[in-house]
Specification:
The complex is a heterodimer of chains A (512) and B (235). Chain A has one domain: MetI-like fold (Orthogonal Bundle). Chain A is built from 23 helices and no strands. Chain A is globular, with a radius of gyration of 23 Å. Classes of the chains: A mainly alpha (512), B alpha/beta (235). At the A-B interface, helix 8 and helix 9 of A face loops of B.
Chain lengths: 512, 235
């Protein structure tokens, strides 16, 4: 159904477009600069994220140190920290009057490419680390046992064991991060610093919000989808197939031979983490101890915004989870049933396709479509909910797919021989899939809670969510108040995340 | 001589192995779940026990697996699927795969010994089960460790092939004067390779005899229960 929705929204956009005028867009140098910059920053961000993530993942896998599980949890949270909050944190640390400038006296050129890169690495390096750790989990214990027996040092282990598994995971991770950076909105809008470094997604927003030029917006949207598709196809063609079959059992570890060089590298990797991930986090929580904080807490607008945010996030996460579940079950049903078999991967790819279609475009198309159907503007609430749900779908799928697939692969014959079907099967599977479902719900919830793009387009007087409120405060240079609101937002996020991944997810597995 | 007096506890399994193992082949027998592999893992350094583990009067207990004078062959996962046969053998000499001329010759010699010279550039996926285990034995040969531990490495092979491999192990043990420990669940294996036999029950060594007692008319009392059903099937 949602595929139809997406198609309709694109079509609605196209109806307002004028193909004849497109050729004139193509000849504009501004457009080409946009495309070039979008590609360039996405490429740099994703490469940088991956280059840092590889040693960090290796370090986290091999060493157990104090705070390791805390760091892993921090990584899983930093993926879904509302972008606007993270941006605020980065500004506090690296900004003109930020900590870095105060301590060292160096003025860091935050606005522009460096700022964008910094923010993107902050968001995506932890994501990359988690993806790579998933790849590490696929390495059979036997290989580590053998490496231990033969006295491999870290470099040999990396070269002969880890690399051949990472190689399969890297292209997928690259595409994912590239897409996220390519269509990054809030980061570029607030740290881009002018038209010189602007991306297609921001241009779409500007065309829609300020010029209400549907023609241009639809053209830009199509261009973005096209570029993403080409890149995704290209990388997937080159990439070896990745068989996801992560083991649910905790593996026994064997201590690989340590060396001085390996220690040094690990320390460097760790320092990278300290530089990129930790300071903004600390900066975000800093204002909690100021007097302004209590003052902000008593403001009515804040609590209204919290209410609006929750009213959007919960239905959105719920819809997203339902969509994701039906995707999983469908894909699983198709798996291994003769001709239907190819559909299982197709469906998964379809879910990931959403990353390519800019959320703003879906939202606008949907809005236009609903307007044509005669529904009034008051239903913009549901548009926001719906688009948020769809946007969270790739992440939901990523959380649930491997677990559901594994269940199918291992127990299918057992289930079918015992005649366990439908509801009774759900009941038997629940304890096993529970944690990943809860994780998926928590992710969807946090993503909708932190959403800036859709709400920025549709937010009106009556509908100001927490991130939008924060954005308005920053826009009005009320930074201190904004920082306090950010604390509220992130506490809300963390609270809900912990609540859902622990309470609904049952026992907490701190897995890589 | 390998002197073992090791304790190991895991949940409700409490093992205490006390035995002295001489040069030559010794077969470890016992029903599944009685702790044969556990003993091998303790010796190999893949599990940490406490007590005494001496080889030639030197304690091995504090050493990590790669510094012990031991090569272990497992039931599976002995080879790296991403490396060729040659690399899989060579990596036993240098974890960085940087070999000098003499070491290269040794790899070539080991591949000759195991009749794998023609397969040097193949990947493990292209090998049969027997060939794959022969590659692992070639690696044992180049590593020149005096103790060889075998954790049912041939249990997935056909009877004929299995016999052939056991014969290879016996030959290697005799030629290089190794101390070899072979875990098996078939008493016929012990008869085939000769040497001594150890029976393990509930984490303890309950008998340590020459292997031909298994074939004699009067099997020691410790073995009768274990052999009860298997003797009727093998004889």
């Amino acid at each position: 159904m949602f595929v139809y929705m997406g198609a309709f929204s694109l079509m609605a956009l196209l109806r307002y477009s004028d193909v004849a005028e497109w050729s004139s867009f193509l000849s504009q140098p501004y457009l080409w600069r946009l495309v070039r910059f979008s590609l360039w920053q996405a490429l740099l961000s994703s490469l940088l994220s991956l280059v840092i993530a590889v040693p960090v993942a290796s370090c986290l896998f091999h060493r157990s140190f104090w705070g390791r599980s805390f760091l892993l949890q921090l990584f899983s949270v930093s993926m879904v920290v509302p972008s606007i909050v993270a941006i605020l944190g980065i500004v506090v640390v690296y900004g003109r009057t930020g900590w870095l400038a105060q301590i060292s006296g160096i003025e860091f050129p935050l606005y522009g490419v460096t700022g964008i890169l910094l923010a993107h690495v902050f968001f995506n390096m932890p994501l990359a680390v988690r993806l790579l750790l998933q790849a590490y989990a696929l390495i059979p214990t036997g290989q580590w046992r053998q490496a231990y027996q033969l006295g491999f040092d870290r470099w040999s282990a990396f070269r002969f064991i880890e690399w051949s598994y990472l190689r399969k995971a890297l292209p997928g991770a690259f595409v994912l991060i590239f897409m996220l950076c390519f269509s990054s909105f809030a980061v570029v809008l607030s740290l881009g610093g002018g038209p010189k470094s602007s991306t297609l997604e921001v241009a779409i927003y500007q065309a829609l919000r300020f010029d209400f030029d549907l023609n241009k917006a639809s053209f830009l949207a199509l261009l973005q989808v096209l570029i993403c598709t080409v890149i995704a196809l290209f990388v997937y063609k080159l990439a070896p197939v990745n068989h996801q079959d992560s083991s649910l059992l905790t593996q026994s570890r064997f201590p690989i031979r340590d060396s001085y060089g390996a220690k040094c590298l690990d320390v460097i990797a760790f320092l990278c983490v300290l530089v990129f991930v930790l300071p903004p986090f600390i900066a975000i929580f800093d204002p909690m101890f100021s007097t302004q904080f209590l003052h902000t807490l008593s403001s009515l607008r804040l609590w209204l915004a919290v209410l609006v945010s929750l009213k959007i996030a919960f239905p959105a996460a719920f819809i997203s989870l339902l969509l994701g579940l039906s995707f999983c079950v469908l894909a699983r049903y198709c798996m291994g049933r003769g001709k239907l078999n190819i559909w299982s991967t197709k469906l998964e790819q379809l879910g990931n396709l959403i990353l390519m279609v800019p959320g703003l475009v879906i939202a606008t198309g949907l809005f236009l479509w609903l307007r044509d159907l005669g529904l009034s503007f008051s239903s913009s609430y549901w548009i926001v909910v719906w688009v948020n749900a769809v946007m969270a779908l790739p992440f939901v799928l990523r959380c649930m797919m491997p677990c559901f697939y594994q269940q199918e692969r291992r127990f299918r014959h057992l289930y079918s021989s015992l005649g366990v079907q439908a509801w009774s099967r759900c009941k038997i599977e629940w304890p096993l899939v529970r944690s990943s479902v809860a994780q998926a719900f928590a992710f969807a919830l946090l993503l909708s809670l932190g959403d800036m793009g859709v709400i920025a387009l549709f937010g009106s007087q009556g509908m100001v969510s927490l991130p939008l409120y924060l954005f308005q405060l920053i826009g009005a240079y009320r930074l201190e108040e904004g920082a306090c609101v950010a604390v509220v937002l992130i506490l809300l996020c963390l609270g809900l995340y912990v609540l859902f991944s622990r309470v609904v997810g049952g026992r907490w597995h701190a897995q890589g | 001589m390998l002197k073992v007096d090791l304790k190991y506890d895991w949940e409700r399994f409490h093992a205490h192995y006390q035995v002295q193992i001489d040069q030559g082949i010794t077969t470890l027998l016992g029903a599944s779940g009685e702790g044969k592999s556990t003993l091998l893992h303790l010796l190999g350094g893949f599990l940490q026990g406490h007590g005494v583990l001496d080889y030639q009067s030197e304690s091995l207990l504090a050493l990590p697996a790669y510094q012990r004078p031991i090569s272990t062959l497992f039931q599976s996962d002995n080879l790296f699927p991403q490396l060729t046969v040659w690399q899989n053998v060579a990596i036993g000499l240098s974890p960085h795969l940087r070999l000098n001329e003499e070491q290269c010759e040794r790899v070539a010699w080991a591949l000759e010994q195991t009749q794998l010279a023609a397969k040097a550039d193949a990947y493990p996926q292209a090998l049969s089960g027997g060939q794959a285990q022969r590659v692992a034995i070639a690696r044992v040969l180049v590593r020149k460790k005096p103790i060889l531990l075998l954790d049912e490495p041939f249990s997935a092979l056909d009877p004929a092939l299995r016999e052939e491999m056991l014969f290879l192990v016996k030959q290697v043990t005799e030629t290089f004067s190794l101390t070899t420990l072979l875990v098996s669940h078939l008493p016929s294996d012990a008869l085939l390779v000769g040497g001594r036999v150890i029976l393990i029950e509930q984490g303890q060594v309950v008998a340590h005899e020459a292997s031909d007692v298994l074939a004699s008319k009067q099997t020691p009392i410790a073995f009768t229960q274990y052999l009860g059903e298997s003797k009727s099937s093998t004889s």
